[in-house]
Every structure is written in C-alpha cells, then in structure tokens.
C-alpha cells in the first residue's frame, strides 16, 4: 500500500507477564473504514490505546499521519479524534455545552469554536437537539454526541473503541449508516474495534485478532471466500465416530467446535442427503449455509469467537 495513513510494524505489548499483542503489522489507507474484530481479550483495545497514544507499545512502531505515536505523540493527537467505549459525556449539560467544553480542551474559542460546533451538529443531524440535556437522549443519540466530540477538532482519522456498546440493534444500524455517510462525504479514515460480527461486515477491510495474534487481514468478502464453498454443521452425540467416518468414507476434513462438526465443502447443500443416509440414527440435526465472518474466525483459529474468560481483558 502506497502512502498509508496508518502503518504498524511489529507491535507487541505486554501487561506484566501477559502478551496482549504479538508482533502485529498492518497498514490502513486514507479514507478506509477499518475494523479490528475479535473477542474481548483478543488485543483490540490494546491496539486502540496504542494508536490513540494512550499507551506505549513494548516493542514495534506505529506511524499515524506521518508521526510516530511514541516519539511524536503530541503531533499524532492533532490528527486524530477518539471515541472511547466508556461514556464521557456530562449528562447534566446540553448537547451544545458538551461540545463547547470539549472544544475548549482543544483550544477552540470564539467564532471558530461556534462554527465547528454548528457544523458538527448539522453533520450529526443533531441541530434540533442542541439545547437538550444529554441524559434525556436515547443511547443512540448520546453515542452520536460522543462521535461529535471526536470530530470537533476536524481530525484526519477517527478511532472508535466498541462504538456500539449499549446500543440496541436499531441504534447500531443507525450508527453505522452515519459512520459510512461520514466517510463518504468527508473522506475521513475511520478505525473501529468491535466484537460484533455484523459490524465488521460494514468495513472496507478488517483485521481479526485472537489472543494477541493477527490471524486474518483482508476485505470481508475475500475472507469469506477463503472458507471454500458452504459450511455444513452436524449435531450428533457421536461426534468423534462421525468425524472418523466422514474422513474414511468421504475423504472429508472436519472441525469439532462446541460439539458441532463443521465441514467446508463446495455445493454442500447437495451433500447433506448423503450424510444423513450414511449415518442413520447418529445425526441429530444438519444445517448448511454460506460462509460468515464467524466461519472465517473458526477457519483461522479452530474455535468460535467468544470472550476469553481465562485470558483476561485488553485493559
């Protein structure tokens, strides 16, 4: 990629004796919507904190808008807007007051501050809410105000950590429609962390992180094509026996995930009757579907994308 707006080379990070990121490298182009996808404990928030200059990586280098996140952190902050997972709004203030006080932190005063606030409110479709107390807004509208704070300094890159946290499905859809519209109208680069598979579908490219490792990096469509054909899921009480017979009788490789046998096969729907016929009385249920990002995650890691209970969080 020529002239990437973000370049990460060999980033690793340790929390005490826990490896949160392991030699991760990637590039992000100007105007991309880029998503870090993975379970809690996968390394997403650690990468978010490094790119937003909140922590220093143990090893490796990250360049944002031409500046090193460690050696030139102050310069990096001039080019980025940050939206945190935890709410940072003052619920007792109005929408406009929240933006005004955030602007003061960035040195925005007078007419310039008013102009940027008005532009932000208009772009966020919040003009009619400017004088409403924030605690009276819905979760989706509050999240939009959070994004407004990130956009107020007119950044080149907007970095969001789990922006859909606490939102219902409808508000989540609205949020992503707005983010994509924002990219299309302004050309801003948007970097998002998420553990929600459907959100990653909206990205131009995604990086899948698992236990600190970068296990996949490409467009959602290309990653799904690599799975190969359709995914057959077989539920049975005799999983090991059925797996062995699948391999011996049909020369099929399979993966056992949460007591469900997964088989990747072209035209898998045509093969389902043969499976049922071959294992009378041994199959509880069979389903077949086109590959999803969850199938990509399983294909790359051998397990479902769930929170790593014994691995710890990113923080």
Describe what is shown at a glance.
This protein is of the alpha/beta class. The protein is built from 11 helices and 14 strands.
Please state how the strands of the largest beta sheet are arranged side by side.
6-7-8-3-9-10
From the N-terminal CA to the C-terminal CA, the straight-line distance is 31 Å
State the helicity in percent bands.
Answer: 25-40%
The overall strand count is: 14
Largest sheet: 6 strands, mixed
Average pLDDT for all residues: 89
Flag low-confidence runs. Answer: 307-313
Give the H and E element order: EEEHEEHEHHHEHEHEEHEHEEHEH
Structural class per helix/strand content? alpha/beta
Query: Shape from CA axes?
Result: elongated
Number of helices: 11
| Strand coverage percent | 25-35%
Question: What is the gyration radius calculated from CA atoms?
Answer: 23 Å
How would you characterize this protein structure?
With 315 residues, the chain is an alpha/beta fold. The chain is 36% helix and 27% strand. Strand 9 (205-210) and strand 10 (213-218) form a beta hairpin. The chain is elongated and about 75 Å long. The two termini are 31 Å apart.
